[in-house]
Amino acid sequence: MSELSPFVILIAAIFTNNILLANFLGMCSFLAVSKQIETAGGLGAAVIFVMTATTAINYGIYHHVLVPLELTYLSFIVFIAVIAAFVQFVEMFVERFSLGLYHALGIFLPLITVNCAILGVSLFMIIREYTFWQSVAFGFGGGLGWTLAIVLIAGLRQKMRYSDVPVPFRGVAIAMIITGVMAMAFMGFAGMVRIQ
Asked: Which one, of 24, 43, 53, lies nearest residue 147 by Cα?
């Protein structure tokens, strides 16, 4: 994978290999917090920050600590610990500087810790053997792609409040249908570039 430029990986992570719409990672917080655009955007910004920073840190820990000490079997535990520590930092920062957003996100801000999209990006970085800059681009692009998806569905869900949605489809059912349609729409970008 070293022949791909970080910019190509960034674009692919946003559109063609969207961590949410192509791999369906991070669906729990995606469905729960996608009712208001402001809340979705705030959570998306936190996910971008956490995903980019933890990908860079996890790259360094994996290649400079775990691999030389032959402790790669601990990578899951170490990655989760790094993610949990960063989420604590983000939670304290948001509580300090944006109390309204902190209350709007509620329990979902600490749930970034268990957002499988963040762990998935760190694991894909190892599986695909990315360089440091490729990993950072993939982490940033993955966060941007996740944010793009959650803001899009939040806007659609806000518009649907004024629509006549049949009763059996209200709530999570219509959100899942919209997510499937969005995933198919993003598949249209597959001709641009695809990373495996």
From this structure: 43
Residue 87 lies in a domain: yes
Query: What is the Cβ-side half-sphere exposure of residue 193, based on CA atoms within 13 angstroms?
Result: 13
Distance CA 25, CA 28 (A): 9
| 195 located within any domain | no
- Confirm whether pTM is higher than 0.90: no
Domain extent, residue 155, equals 6-189
Q: Is 1 within a domain?
A: no
Greatest alpha-carbon pair distance for the chain in Å reads 60
Q: What total number of domains does the chain contain?
A: 1
Whether 9 and 192 have beta carbons less than 8 Å apart is answered as: no
Report whether 14 contacts 193 (CB < 8 A).
no
Residues in the chain: 196
> 10-51: per-residue pLDDT in tens?
999 999 888 989 888 888 878 877 888 888 888 888 889 889
Span between the terminal Cα atoms of the chain, in Å: 9
In a domain, 194, yes or no: no
* pLDDT, tens only, 136-173: 999 999 999 999 999 999 998 888 888 888 888 887 88
